[in-house]
Design brief:
Blueprint: E1 14-16, E2 19-23, H1 24-37, E3 43-48, H2 49-54, H3 56-62, E4 69-74, H4 83-95, E5 103-108, H5 110-122, E6 128-133, H6 136-142, E7 150-152, E8 155-159, E9 168-170, H7 180-197, H8 199-206, H9 213-233, H10 248-259, H11 269-288, H12 292-306, H13 313-322, E10 336-341, E11 344-349, H14 353-364
Parallel strand pairs: 2-9, 3-4, 3-5, 5-6
Antiparallel strand pairs: 1-2, 7-8, 10-11
Helix pairs in contact: 4-5, 6-7, 6-9, 7-8, 7-9, 7-11, 10-11, 10-13, 11-12, 11-14
């Protein structure tokens, strides 16, 4: 997948219920009009070390306002997504006099948008926030849909609340500075959007290598549209929003496992989800008649983009243990999302351990 900067092109905004997503140059005009039209006492831009350096200068240059602006910087990386970081950001907000008319702008990847959203939603019982995602993963997933939160140790997103920000501003030119592994981490979520909702989207993404650069902007918008439509149907994840967890039951457990292992490289979120998608397609084939040809095509696509990670038998057992922390569990039971076919997910499926072990073997084969 290419990582060069993209042509900035006009893309129509997405507005569904209280979810407003604006793209590229148009996003900055909308932000400036918003700042002009609303009663905002102060602006706090939350960035991490990377986005402070690479994205903030461009972002600040586009803002036209007299509202006082403060920058808050946090460290990069998943380890930052903790209650300790929240406490320091709440302290800075408090010391700098943030009040209930303040606005937080989260400029960064999923760690910044999740944590910044959570900080804003809890500071003085909730102040407004805007997400400006700078990674592909945050653009197509984390920044959209109002999920905010932090990790509890190595357990991802165990603490948080769902409350949408004022808007999401997607400037795809930020992707020009993103390393290849971060790009493919976002691609995994886009592929998932195709698998759960749209055969055509899946097929276009599977052959992304042959695509001209401007196609990626359109595919990003298509993915965001799929996600926004699902969130609008079910903002608090009673049913349809669970579809977005396809690939995430085993994917999250695998991600948590690698996060907890100091002696090996951690997997990026999308890299772990790619493993989960292959395994959960296999389980879908066994339990829901998901066609074997599609299952093999998913495995080939994922292995082309992500390669294969060696997971030993001992590690498989530990990953299966971690399933007990999955957020979708109810009554002590692990609930999988599976597919009957591409675009046809089913929720709350119970899977026995023997089949999960078979799925590991399929992934490794
Ligand atoms: N990342 C899945 C969701 O937003 O529901």
């Amino acid at each position: 997948m290419r990582t060069q900067p993209m042509l900035s092109q006009f893309m129509n905004s997405i507005t569904i219920d209280n979810c407003h997503i604006h793209f590229n140059d148009n996003a900055y005009s909308i932000l400036n009009s918003y700042l002009d039209a609303h009663d905002i006492s102060s602006l706090f831009i939350l960035a991490d070390t990377n986005t402070h350096l690479h994205c903030l200068p461009k972002f600040i240059a586009q803002i036209e306002t007299d509202i006082p602006i403060e920058i808050i910087e946090i460290e990069t990386g998943e380890e930052t997504k903790s209650i300790e970081t929240c406490i320091s950001v709440w302290n800075v907000l408090s010391e700098l006099g943030a009040d209930r008319k303040s606005l937080v702008i989260n400029l960064g990847g999923g760690v910044v948008t999740d944590l910044g959203g959570f900080v804003a939603c809890t500071y003085k019982r909730g102040i407004r926030y805007i997400n400006v995602p700078t990674t592909l993963l945050a653009m197509v997933d984390a920044s959209v849909g109002g999920k905010t939160g932090i990790d509890l140790g190595t357990l991802k997103n165990q603490i948080g609340i769902i409350r949408s920000g004022e808007m999401v501003l997607v400037d795809t030119s930020f992707l020009g500075t993103l390393p290849k592994n971060q790009m493919r981490s976002g691609l995994a979520e886009m592929l998932k959007h195709g698998l759960i909702n749209d055969l055509d989207h899946w097929q276009q993404l599977s052959s992304l290598d042959q695509m001209a650069s401007e196609d990626l902007d359109r595919l990003i918008r298509d993915s965001i549209l799929i996600k926004s439509n699902i969130v609008a149907q079910d903002p608090f994840e009673a049913k349809e929003r669970k579809y977005l967890n396809f690939g995430h039951t085993l994917g999250h457990a695998t991600e948590s496992f690698f996060l907890g292992k100091m002696d090996r490289n951690t997997l990026l979120h999308g890299e772990a989800i790619a493993i989960g998608l292959v395994m959960e397609c296999f389980i879908s084939h066994k339990l829901k008649c998901f066609p074997k040809g599609d299952c093999d095509a998913v495995k080939t696509t994922m292995q082309n983009h992500f390669g294969k990670v060696e997971i030993s038998e001992e590690d498989r057992a530990t990953i299966m243990e971690l399933l007990k922390y999955d957020k979708k569990n109810t009554h002590g039971q692990v609930n999988f999302v599976l597919l009957e076919s591409i675009g046809k997910p089913v929720v709350d499926c119970v899977v026995d351990n023997a089949l999960i072990l078979e799925a590991f073997a399929y992934y490794e084969s």
